[in-house]
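To whoever is on call:

I kicked off a structure prediction for a single chain this morning and the downstream step that reads the tokens threw a length-mismatch warning. I double-checked the sequence; it's 99 residues and nothing unusual in it as far as I can see. Pasting both halves so you can look.
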Amino acid sequence: MQPSLPFRPSIQARFAAFHAENPQVFAAFRRVAGELMDGGLTHLSADMLMHWVRIEEVRTWKRSEGFKINNDFTALYARELMKEPRFANLFETRRRKTA
């Protein structure tokens, strides 16, 4: 008999759940990206953008919301944003190891 191993949902599944429960994160990610593009930038670092969101936006969210933005989600937020034509070429992407 093999020991049972705890199941951990995929990054995509965890992202989907977090994204659905915290729409303000993507709204802030999108808003900051738009502001930077309006300022003349044509390429951004998704990591830099997510840190900006953490620094600027977490001040306005209630501490009682008690969430943290997992670094694993940064690339998924970038890919989600790139679905919009305006942001299609904003980030350089790499091939994902898992789908």
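Update from on-call: the warning came from a stale cache, not from the record. Cleared it. Sanity check on the structure: The chain has four helices and no strands.
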